[in-house]
Specification:
alpha/beta, 9 helices, ER, CRYZL1, oxidoreductase activity, GroES-like_sf, identical protein binding
Length: about 350
């Protein structure tokens, strides 16, 4: 039985993906479930976080967003039984790769998969669904009538965030990084209130948002990265499509919430003073926050269940690429790690 792992080269920090043979899994432990994986979604691996958490290994398992059939359960498992169809996210410290035919997982990381949801949809939605809930529900308390700016809304995560915001009755503004993304966003139903095309680098995001909101500013901003310095000081070309942190602060309304994915965000005293005057807040979107806090397990399971219910009801319509077989996972994972995939890629077993 083969599984996919990654190995980080210490000399140039390049991540290499390799298939390795795995031994047969031991007898299922007390609270653990043995799962036959039917689908596994591919997501970027945060190697920096793993290093900070002292979780580096010679070979680290790949693939965490899984859907499958329960084969066996431990003696103390209370929520599942053999032949149940389930979906979930393997914990950060899982010893088993999701990109393998059979894995072991604690029952508290799984929920039942709705019957009408396909394996591909379940695995391809669960990760982005949890992330969108964390950003819009727990970090910014989204409610009906709020205005929300979702950066890069045509991405796999951005589209789920837009759909959740629409479901809550929010007015959504989004940015597009290409003509294809702009056309994708314009097809959304309910429609996006305003699509800001930043591909040419000439549009001023703050002005567009203030114009759309009648000068009041937006209530919630969910970024996809920000520029911390002037354009001349930002070497990568793609960073030019990101808004500057000053633009975000300018377009925030009174009492606004800025949810950022920029873990190294630096705010100067004038930036902080401007946020203070607006009574605005900044929160950091950490994908692993539920994994790092055991006391929040009940809330986490509620989110997983709600994500699956909304997927079953058609509220969530994920942007999925064509599913691929396991033997193509190595090449696809290399592209995902380099952020060269727009739609969610799922491996189907």
């Amino acid at each position: 039985m083969k599984g996919l792992y990654f190995q980080q080269n210490s000399t140039n920090e390049e991540t290499m993906f390799v298939f390795q043979e795995r031994e047969n899994l031991p007898v299922t432990e007390d609270y653990f479930v043995k799962l036959q994986v039917k689908a596994c979604a591919l997501s970027q691996i945060n190697t920096k976080l793993l290093a900070e958490m002292k979780m580096e290994k010679d070979f680290f398992p790949v693939g965490r967003e899984v859907a499958g059939i329960v084969l066996d359960v431990g003696s103390k498992v209370s929520f599942f039984q053999p032949d149940d169809e389930v979906v979930g996210i393997l914990p950060l410290d899982s010893e088993d790769p999701g990109l393998c035919e059979v894995v072991r997982v604690h029952e508290h990381y799984l929920v039942h998969k709705p019957e009408k949801v396909t394996w591909t949809e379940a695995a391809g939605t669960v990760g982005d669904g949890v992330r969108a809930y964390t950003a819009l529900h727990y970090l910014s308390h989204l409610s009906c009538g709020k205005s929300v700016l979702i950066m890069d809304g045509a991405s796999a995560f951005g589209s789920i965030a837009i759909q959740l915001a629409h479901h809550r009755g929010a007015r959504v503004i989004s940015t597009a990084c290409s003509l294809e993304d702009k056309q994708c966003l314009e097809r959304f139903r309910p429609p996006v209130a305003r699509v800001i095309d930043v591909s040419a680098g000439k549009v001023h995001i703050a002005e567009s948002c203030l114009e759309e909101t009648g000068g009041l500013g937006v209530d919630i901003v969910l970024d996809a990265g920000v520029r911390l310095y002037n354009k001349d000081d930002e070497p990568p070309v793609k960073l030019q499509l990101l808004p500057h942190k000053h633009d975000i602060i300018t377009l925030l309304g009174v009492g606004g919430h800025w949810i950022t994915t920029e873990e190294n965000l630096q705010l100067d005293p004038p930036d902080s003073h401007c946020l203070f005057l607006k009574g605005a807040t900044v929160a950091f979107l950490n994908d692993e926050v539920w994994n790092l806090s055991n006391v929040q397990q009940g809330k986490y399971l509620c989110i997983l269940k709600d994500v699956m219910e909304k997927l079953s009801a058609g509220v969530f319509r994920p942007q999925l690429d064509e599913p691929i077989p396991l033997y193509e996972a190595k090449v696809s994972m290399e592209l995902v790690q380099k952020n060269q995939r727009r739609k969610k890629q799922v491996v189907l077993f």
